[in-house]
């Protein structure tokens, strides 16, 4: 089964807690603090795997959680870093943030990696807080929490050549003749419900990947028919083979078909309109096709296109078409993509935290730094609490709360911590 879209949930590992301990050895006076640091939590990393060609594995497993770092130990022994969690995806996977739609990564080459969420930093042991003022700190840090996010994965086939055209024009028949691919072939619309890839091998030792894109119809750019499900698979192809049924036995005019399909490609993505095309006149074994061919060829000539007569039923013209396709691929020069919009960023100092009001009237403090400080503070240790209070004042949260009108005894929330405000 071909699956080309998936939604997954990824969670990185928490950092290991720092250790609070003391060196106690015979004949070693004033041993001092000896608590080690916690290990770093594992990252979640996407990696492109050559042996993966669909996203079907994500139908059965959609949540990926990395391991946590190991806590620090006595005698200044640091905890072990957690191993990273690798998720295999096929070449051509576009990764988006499911909540914002932002493109996180575009993975096209085998072995390419993208760190999606980083593991939390390990907490520091009490040995790390020794200074000239405090020679015997009793507190240590908890590990920083990991991150999580929901991702939307979209697969765009990495084929060199794409076959496009209305349903039943013979695309599946063509790819079954020129490659080892065996798509379903039948005399009804939308026989091909999933893209089919085939490798075309030529006598000179050259080869290329040909994709049979399911039939498009008028309005495909708006999602009609198979629409958006498969239009995106054409975006990465270098050359397009536009297949026409010149026999007209389906009751459609091949010239009208040509204009409608090109219009759909243009409406979906302007760049597709400039992609090299070879116009293929299929079903030339039929008498109706031979009658229509001169008219269609004359029309294409006016547009500057050569029409290639072929018959998928007999194989006529297909070797020459594949040779011409290979020649066009060799001449193809990849145009670097340019940003469609120019975004100008104005430098400004970001606020370290924000203060708002919760539904029950409590003061709600948000900010990556302060929330991480709360998560890494051990509130069961009096010295750790005092350190938190000092930092609370130093970074200006207490004065900011007073400006917001906080009163003695009001509830203040930071992350998962809740306390009463006292001066």
UniProtKB/TrEMBL annotation:
It is found in: Cytoplasm. GTP binds at residues 165-172, 190-194, 212-215, 282-285, 311-313. PROSITE patterns: G_OBG, GTP1_OBG, OBG, OCT. Residues 345-423 form the OCT domain. Its cofactor is Mg(2+). Belongs to the TRAFAC class OBG-HflX-like GTPase superfamily. OBG GTPase family. This is GTPase Obg. It comes from Pelosinus propionicus DSM 13327.
């Amino acid at each position: 089964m071909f699956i080309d879209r998936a939604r997954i949930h990824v969670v990185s590992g928490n950092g290991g807690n720092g250790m609070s301990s003391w060196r106690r050895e015979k004949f070693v006076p004033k041993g001092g603090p000896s608590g080690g640091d916690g290990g770093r939590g594992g990252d979640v990393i996407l990696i492109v795997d050559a042996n993966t060609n669909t996203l079907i594995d994500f139908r059965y497993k959609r949540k990926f959680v990395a391991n946590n770092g190991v806590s620090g130990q006595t005698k200044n022994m640091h905890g072990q870093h957690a191993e990273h969690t690798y998720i295999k995806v096929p070449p051509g996977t576009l990764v988006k943030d499911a909540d914002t739609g932002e493109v996180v990564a575009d993975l096209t080459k085998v072995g390419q990696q993208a760190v999606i969420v980083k593991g939390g930093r390990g907490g520091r042991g009490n040995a790390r807080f020794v200074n000239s003022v405090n020679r015997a700190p009793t507190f240590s840090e908890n590990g920083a929490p990991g991150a999580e996010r929901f991702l939307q994965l979209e697969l765009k086939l990495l084929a060199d050549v794409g076959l496009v055209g209305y349903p039943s024009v013979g695309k599946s028949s063509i790819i079954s003749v020129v490659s080892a691919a065996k798509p379903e072939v039948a005399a009804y619309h939308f026989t091909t419900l999933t893209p089919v890839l085939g490798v075309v091998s030529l006598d000179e030792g050259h080869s290329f990947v040909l994709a049979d894109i399911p039939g498009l119809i008028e309005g495909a750019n708006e999602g009609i028919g198979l629409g958006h499900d498969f239009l995106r698979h054409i975006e990465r192809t270098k050359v397009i083979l536009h297949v026409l049924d010149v026999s007209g036995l389906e009751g459609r005019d091949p010239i009208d078909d040509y204009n409608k399909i090109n219009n759909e490609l243009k409406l979906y993505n302007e760049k597709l309109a400039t992609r090299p095309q070879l116009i293929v006149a299929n079903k030339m074994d039929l008498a109706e096709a031979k009658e229509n061919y001169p008219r269609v060829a004359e029309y294409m000539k006016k547009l500057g296109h050569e029409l290639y007569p072929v018959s998928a039923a007999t194989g006529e013209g297909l070797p020459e078409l594949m040779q011409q396709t290979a020649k066009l691929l060799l001449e193809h020069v990849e145009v670097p993509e340019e940003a469609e919009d120019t975004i100008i960023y104005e430098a400004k100092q970001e606020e370290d935290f924000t203060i708002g009001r919760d539904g029950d009237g409590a003061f709600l403090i948000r900010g990556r730094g302060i929330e991480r400080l709360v998560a890494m503070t051990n509130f069961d240790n009096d010295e750790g609490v005092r350190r938190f209070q000092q930092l609370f004042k130093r970074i200006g949260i207490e004065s900011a709360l007073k400006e917001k009108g906080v009163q003695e005894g009001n509830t203040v929330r930071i992350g998962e911590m809740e306390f009463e405000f006292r001066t």
